[in-house]
TrEMBL record:
Residues 138-219 form the PDZ domain. The keyword Coiled coil applies. Keywords: Coiled coil, SH3 domain. It comes from Pygocentrus nattereri (Red-bellied piranha). Residues 294-305 have a biased composition (Basic and acidic residues). Transmembrane segments: none annotated. Residues 7-61, 62-119 form the L27 domain. This is Membrane protein, palmitoylated 3a (MAGUK p55 subfamily member 3). The keyword Nuclease does not apply. InterPro entries: GK/Ca_channel_bsu, Guanylate_kin-like_dom, Guanylate_kinase_CS, L27_C, L27_dom, L27_dom_sf, MAGUK, P-loop_NTPase. Residues 294-322 are annotated as: Disordered. Residues 479-530 form a coiled coil.
Length: 541
């Protein structure tokens, strides 16, 4: 037929166009056979032709003939039923009253009117009688199962219900109609003048779909919250459901140490608004401000001291109260010295072995800071390779002048790693790897070194029976390991996590030496090409 001939010409032209795009120097025989089979299907040809006709119709910018097809169909049906009907009229009535056609006509009218918003209830007729027209505002919001995204408080002087906060990203914030300081009078026609704040919050949370608020705008309605770009690393664990001080537990944002928080508002000195970086929830939540949390920690410590009579001393060099640390994204630039990589490990991690293996695989990119020692040099050793060999007097002088990041004594000889040894490695444009005791982190966390801290801990079996070396990564080649030794290893890891976990960038669970080396290599490679969160003080200095 003429139509099939036209379709055949159409897909032949398309096939020819695809053929012209193929490279002439390649073998496309199989591809051509496949394409020919595809384009030989009649169903595809019909679909392509329909698509082309729809595109042509779309380019004509069609407009609906009428916007009330549903009501017109109802009018016709009533007219048909008003008198005797012929066979054709009965068939028409059956079609007009069928649910499928009525649904199609309803969709047509919706699209024709371009009315896609939910249907809101009519305005109340008497609201102007209660308040002056220029001072009242009726706000209609559409929310699903999400919270409204605003908190309220009772003004102690006037007793009015005031909007205390508008949570960034919530329904109230997205509307742009509810602001801090607005006075709330009604919710869905129900007066809130004599209700408690918790009753009002429950009324708001139970409202689904459309919600109508009667509000007296704040005096400075134009003063809106400005979203900031402040990022904080959380240094403590927070669960709003356990916090009796929070103004609204449901609006709280839970987090754990190490989480990165974007603080979007610090207008309230007690409760900040924040979002968790990487969280899909766009609505901000309440978190205690740095000053408020420090005050809470201080009061909590006084309570403990008052009950026990003992002071709880902080670690040397550790901030008195750990709350938040302002951070920013940092990526090493080609002209900058490589970042220092610091390895700390719990009992049984054997991080020196791990460090040496990774360096041995690529000594041109990675190196170790050569330590100092007071022991005599052996015949096969070279100065500045295995150690820097110094006298006890010189070692003590350097220790007195704080030139070591850490040092100690072993078999009546002293050993230490100096700051200059790290700088020497970085001056050669190599990434320096050091393994230290966790206490040294307070000395190394500076803008000069920008350390990336890896906490290595062995995977410790939970079984209470003795494990062989073959089944216990912690045992390694040292043979069997007792349950008491496993418990010591667990306590060691737990202690480091509690005291220094907030300073750790990555936790490496050591299953075995090979997998641990591979994971550490991956970390080092990403450090050279990816951005990471670092304290903002490291960049500003």
């Amino acid at each position: 037929s003429p139509i099939w001939s036209e379709l055949t010409d159409f897909h032949d032209r398309t096939l020819a166009l695809l053929t012209s795009q193929l490279r002439p120097d390649a073998n496309h025989k199989e591809d051509m056979v496949f394409l020919k089979d595809v384009f030989s299907e009649k169903s595809l040809a019909y679909l392509m032709k329909i698509h082309e006709k729809l595109r042509q119709y779309e380019r004509q910018s069609p407009t609906p003939v009428l916007h009330s097809a549903s009501s017109l169909a109802e009018d016709v049906a009533e007219e048909l039923q008003s008198g005797p009907m012929s066979v054709e009229e009965k068939e028409l009535l059956h079609l007009l009253t069928s649910p499928h056609l009525r649904a199609v006509l309803s969709v047509h009218d919706t699209v024709a009117q371009k009315n896609f918003d939910p249907v809101l209830p009519p305005l109340p007729d008497d609201f102007e009688d209660e308040l002056e027209e220029e001072s009242v505002k009726i706000v209609r919001l559409v929310k699903n199962k999400e919270p409204l995204g605003a908190t309220i408080r009772r003004d102690e002087a006037t007793g009015a219900v005031i909007v205390a906060r508008v949570m960034k990203g919530g329904a109230a914030d997205r509307s742009g109609l509810v602001h801090v300081g607005d006075e709330l009078r009604e919710v869905n026609g129900i007066s809130v003048m004599h209700k408690r704040p918790d009753e009002i919050s429950q009324l708001l949370s139970q409202s689904q779909g459309s919600i109508t608020l009667k509000i007296i705008p704040a005096i400075k309605e134009e003063d809106k919250l400005k979203e900031s770009k402040v990022y904080m690393r959380a240094l403590f664990d927070y669960n709003p459901l356990d916090d009796k001080a929070t103004p609204c537990q449901e609006a709280g944002l839970p987090f754990k140490p190490g989480d990165i928080l974007q603080v979007v508002s610090q207008d309230d000195g007690t409760w900040w608004q924040a979002k968790k970086v990487g969280d899909s929830n766009l609505r901000a939540g309440l978190i205690p401000s740095k000053q408020f949390q420090e005050r809470s920690f201080r009061l909590s410590r006084k309570d403990r001291q008052g009950s026990s009579g003992e002071a709880n001393a902080s670690e040397p060099g550790e901030p008195e109260f750990l709350t938040y640390e302002e951070v920013t994204r940092y990526q090493q630039r080609p002209n900058e010295r490589p970042r220092l990589v610091v390895l700390i490990g719990s009992l049984g991690a054997r991080i020196n072995e791990l460090k040496q293996k990774v360096i041995a695989e690529n000594p041109h990119r990675y190196a170790v800071a050569v330590p100092h020692t007071t022991r005599p040099k052996k015949s096969h050793e070279k100065e500045g390779v295995e150690y820097h060999f110094v006298t006890k007097q010189a070692f003590d002088a350097d220790a007195q002048n704080n030139k070591f990041i850490e040092y100690g004594e072993y078999k009546e000889n002293q050993y230490g790693t100096s700051i200059e040894a790290i700088r020497s490695v970085q001056a050669k444009n190599k990434m320096c790897l050091v393994d230290v005791q966790p206490e040294a982190l307070h000395t190394l966390r500076t803008g000069e070194f920008k350390p990336y801290v890896v906490f290595v801990k062995p995977r410790i079996p939970e079984s209470r029976r003795r494990r062989s070396a073959a089944t216990s990564p912690a045992g390694g080649e040292h043979g069997r390991i007792t349950e008491e030794e496993l418990q010591e290893m667990r306590q060691s890891a737990q202690q480091i996590e509690q005291q220094y976990g907030h300073l750790v960038d990555r936790v490496l669970i050591k299953e075995d030496s090979a997998s641990a080396c591979a994971e550490l290599r991956g970390i080092l490679e990403r450090l050279e090409r990816e951005a990471f969160w670092v304290p903002i003080s490291w960049i500003r200095t």
